[in-house]
Amino acid sequence: EAQTGTDGIRGVKLALKIYNAKKPKIKVEAYEGDDQGDDALGKTVGAGIAADPAVVGVLTAYSGPTIAALPSYKAAGIVIVSPSATRVGLTDPASPSYGAPVFHRIVSNDDLQGPALARTATTGVKNPTVFMVSDQSSYSEGLFASTKAALGTALEGSDKAAKGTTDFSATISKVKAAKANIVIYTGYYADGAKFLKQLRDKNFKGVFAAGDGVLNSEFPKLAGKRQSEGVRLTAPIVPLEVASPKLTADFKKEFGAAPGVYTTEAFTATNMILEAITKGKTTRADILAYIKAIKYKNIAGVTVSFNEFGDLSGSGLMNSFVVKSGVIRLNGKA
User: Fold this and answer.
1) H or E element: which one contains 245?
2) Most Cβ neighbours (<10 Å): which of 82, 193, 230, 239?
3) CA–CA separation, 290 vs 278, rounded Å?
4) Burial class (CB in 10 A: 0-12, 13-18, 19+), 265
5) Could you tell me which of 208, 167, 209, 214 has the C-alpha nearest to residue 190?
6) Average pLDDT over residues 268-277
7) Residue 24: how many other CB atoms lie within 10 Å
8) Mean pLDDT on 7-33
9) What's the pLDDT score for residue 300?
10) Average pLDDT for residues 242-249, to the nearest whole number?
C-alpha cells in the first residue's frame, strides 16, 4: 500500500519546497515515519516521532495507526492535521479513540462517507441487493457501520475478510448465495484489487463499490483494466488536477508523476502548519493553539477551519469517482 504514503508525502514535499524557496527565517524539513498502514507499527513509529523535539507538527494517514499513536502525540502535545484519517471515533468525545486535543482532519469523516457510498453503489441499479465486506481494520469497520446503516433493507448479507487475505473464495461463495448484484468493500486498495479480480474471475457481473481506502491509482493496475472497469468509489477529496492545474504542472515537473489520492489534502495540511510557523509560532503548544483557531484559504479558494472536536467546520465534502479505461475519474458530488 506504499502508493498512499507516496502520494501524501509528495504533497508535503511540494509545500515545503515552495515555502523554503522564499528563504524564510525558519527552514522547515520533513521527517518521514513509515507505519506501513499497520496499527502496531503506528504505535511504535508515533512514539519515535513524538520523542524527537524537532517535530512540531504531524500529518497522519490511516485511521488505525493514527489511533494507535495517539497516546504519544497527546502526551507530547503535538498537533495532528490529518489529510486522510476518516474514522468517526477520532472526533467523537464518547469514543475511546477520541483524538482531542491534538487531532484535526481536513477531510469529512465516515458519518458522511457511509451514506454517500451507499447512494453511489445503488444509484441506477434495479432492485439493489447488496453484500458488504470489511477487512476488520479500524477504518474499514467504521465505514462498514455507517454504510450499513444507510443501506437499510437493500443489505442482503455481509462478511469479514481480514486485511492480508489472499484467497476470497469463501466470501465470494457467500456473495453468490446472497444473489447480490452489488458488492461494497470497505477496506484498502491492495486487498480490494485482489478481491475484485477474484470476483470477476468467478463471473460476478454486478456493481463493485468502495470508499476512499480503495481510491488509489494503483487499484485499477492491480485489479486489471477489464476487471476494474465501472468500479464506483467515494472519497472526501478534491484531485489536485481539479483544485489547481498550475500546481499540478509543478508537481509533475518535480516528481515525474501525476499527483494521487490525498496529495491535495497533504499539501493543504502542510501549509496550515507552515502558516503557523510563519506567524512566529514555533513551539508545539503555540502551533497547536494556532491550528485550533486557524481560518486557512486553500488552493481551491475554500476556507478551512476546525470545530471543537477537530472535524471540519461546515457540512463537509464527499465526491464520487468511477474507473474508466484503467483510470479513476471524478464523477461529481456523491
Assistant:
1) helix 245-255
2) 82
3) 11
4) buried
5) 214
6) 98
7) 12
8) 96
9) 84
10) 94
Residue (of 138, 39, 35) closest to 90 by Cα position: 138
For the beta carbon of residue 315, count every other beta carbon within 10 angstroms. 8
Which is nearest to 41 in space by CA: 66, 65, 71? 65
**pLDDT tier for residue 143 given thresholds of 50, 70 and 90:** very high
Dist CA 194 CA 169 (whole Å): 11
Q: How far apart are the first and last CA of the chain?
A: 25
H-run or E-run covering 103: strand 103-105
> Which pLDDT tens digit goes with each residue over 89-116?
999 999 999 999 999 999 999 999 999 9
Contact 213, 188 (CB under 8 A): yes
Residue 129, all three cell numbers: 441487493
In this prediction, residue 301 carries a pLDDT of 87
pLDDT at site 218: 94
Strands in 130-134's sheet, in edge-to-edge order, are 155-160, 130-134, 182-185, 207-210, 232-235, 319-324, 327-333
Residue 155 three-state SS: strand
